[in-house]
Specification:
With about 550 residues, this protein is mostly helical. About 70% of the residues lie in helices and about 0% in strands. Helix 3 crosses helix 12, helix 14 runs antiparallel to helix 19 and helix 16 packs across helix 17.
Length: about 550
């Protein structure tokens, strides 16, 4: 018996060895190196460096801008997302799945694409130019809401889908008005999922590097764009490290809060999903709100597409053909089509790495512990594997940039560094997609298969694979889309002769010339199309991945 327990413990450690090694080299080491850069000056410990950096007025402005924009965008996302969550998860109507997929696409769109789309919508030649919102905080808020409202729809909608309709129907039968029913019956039942979704949206808004950078430039600095400016413009690495430490602490605190909120008992947890019903007259306000939200989501993308097809006031594919050139005045080192090929190649590698690591992590986290040492080991590994959730892509990229630059870990010029960084960014999506599925498999099925003579491999093929293959495809889709549009970490790590398409788009909009701007629009449409197709395919699998966040 003791020998069997020991073998299981050793097997657990062996299963976790690869992700622990990758996490140690490409996450723990860069983060600790970043912390050391912030606290150690001229070889001696100096905590005053962090205090002096955080005492600067520009740092105060960046922190305050991050806080108030994140709070405002979170409130707007919840207010706009709640009606859509109800309509898309409780009502049955034609094209419901298509509308739901369309509203979920923004979540996986590259942040650079979102920024370019709103610049085209609100800019001098855009249909909403008369509002004079281009380059203002309102434009940034609009981009943040556009990007994150899908989280509310998916997360709250999944909870709403499982609500027992009978209490609300009983309250209505007793004469309660629809608003009273929602306020006294439905809202209390949904409160845990709403608060959890809001905390995650706030986290995503606070770490929205690409949206703030493309819509606000360096005029309106968030914490992340301030880190970027300190690193690439002012060359103030200790200052950037100190600000990254602050962000790390805040993000970890937010993730801890979100995890505890998800742990609140949900009265819908063990109920079967309620079948959607046909709309009634009382549902008209929610339907109208959903249609308005659909129009708001479609407007930037439609404007982006139209702009990419217009050259000198005429319809043309010239902007797309120009992607085969380095742009006006040789803006690019290589044609944008090469950058697209680089992005696709990196995305494939990063997706494969994220799937391998994610499967191993999910298997370790969800395995059944049969001894105290095994249980303790699994708990420690669980906490270790969740650490990447506490670091934004910008902080990760910065940490990799300043630490992995000398033997024996000189990876700064390695073609593997960007795929590994993107795999770590996508890893939470993979883990959060697979963990609920693996945890839901009854271990007695595996035991039954083993008792009938099936080996370990055959047990996995007959019990686990039929349940996991759809979520695994969904996880691959999310990882591919996230990698294809990743900009935060890549902006620090890319090689100048092999930029990714998001990096090229940002470079194009930063250089004057109608040709460069048209190429940025065309490149953004290509990225948006790729991620939208992936999102539509994932939606057909009906895997509740986003709700896990």
């Amino acid at each position: 018996m003791a020998a069997a327990v020991e073998r299981r413990h050793l097997g657990l450690i062996a299963l976790a060895a690869l992700p622990v090694l990758v996490l140690g080299v490409f996450f723990v080491l860069p983060v600790t190196g970043m912390v050391r850069r912030g606290f150690v000056v001229d070889g001696s410990w100096d905590a005053g460096t962090v205090v002096r950096v955080l005492g600067r007025s520009e740092i105060h402005r960046a922190i305050w801008f991050t806080v108030w924009t994140s709070l405002t965008a979170t409130a707007a996302s919840v207010l706009l997302g709640l009606p859509a969550a109800y309509v898309l998860h409780r009502l049955a109507f034609p094209l419901r799945r298509l509308v739901r997929a369309a509203l979920l696409v923004p979540f996986v769109l590259p942040t650079v694409v979102v920024g370019v789309a709103f610049r085209e919508l609100l800019g001098e030649a855009g249909p909403l130019a008369g509002l004079h919102l281009d380059g203002t905080p309102v434009a940034i808020l609009a981009g943040l809401v556009f990007f994150n409202v899908a989280v509310v729809i998916r997360s709250v909608g999944a909870a709403w889908e499982g609500l027992d309709a009978r209490p609300a129907e009983a309250a209505a039968a007793l004469g309660a008005r629809p608003w009273t029913v929602f306020r006294t019956v439905t809202l209390p039942a949904l409160r845990p999922s709403i608060v959890s979704a809001a905390s995650v949206v706030f986290l995503f808004c606070a770490t929205a590097f690409g949206v703030v950078l493309t819509l606000g430039g360096l005029r309106y600095n968030s914490v992340e764009t301030e880190i970027y400016k300190l690193t690439t413009v002012l060359l103030d690495l200790p200052g950037a490290a100190a600000l990254s430490i602050l962000q790390l602490l805040v993000v970890v605190a937010l993730l801890t809060l979100a995890g505890r909120l998800r742990a609140v008992p949900d009265p819908t947890q063990h109920r079967a999903v309620v079948r959607p019903r046909r709309p009634r007259r009382a549902d008209l306000p929610q339907i109208v709100a959903t249609l308005v939200l659909l129009a708001l989501v479609a407007a930037p993308i439609a404007t982006l597409l139209v702009g990419s097809l217009r050259v000198d006031g005429r319809w043309s594919l010239g902007n797309y053909r120009a992607l085969q050139t380095p742009g006006s005045q040789q803006t690019l080192v290589a044609p944008a089509t090469d950058a697209l090929a680089t992005s696709l190649e990196i995305a494939v590698v990063a997706t494969a790495l994220a799937l391998v690591l994610g499967l191993l992590v999910a298997a370790v986290v969800t395995g059944r512990s049969r001894s105290r040492p095994e249980r303790r080991t699994r708990a420690v590994l669980d906490g270790l594997f969740m650490l990447p959730l506490g670091v934004s892509a910008v902080t990760l990229g910065f940490g990799l940039f300043i630490t992995l630059d000398r033997p024996p870990l000189d990876f700064r010029d390695s073609p593997w560094l960007v795929p590994v960084a993107q795999a770590l960014v996508a890893l939470p999506l993979v883990v959060r997609t697979l963990v609920p599925v693996l945890a839901g498999i009854d271990d007695r099925q595996r035991q039954a298969a083993a008792s009938l003579g099936a080996g370990a491999l055959r047990t996995v093929l007959t019990v686990d694979v039929p349940v996991v293959w759809k979520p695994l495809l969904a996880a691959a889709g999310f990882a591919f889309a996230a990698s294809l549009g990743e900009f935060g970490a890549t902006s620090f790590l890319y090689r100048s002769d092999h930029p990714t398409l998001p990096v090229v788009i940002y470079r194009l909009i930063g250089h004057p010339g109608a040709m460069n701007y048209g190429m940025a629009l065309a490149g953004s449409c290509v990225l948006a199309l790729a991620t939208a197709v992936v999102m539509l395919l994932v939606e057909r699998l009906r895997v509740p991945s986003l709700g896990a966040f």
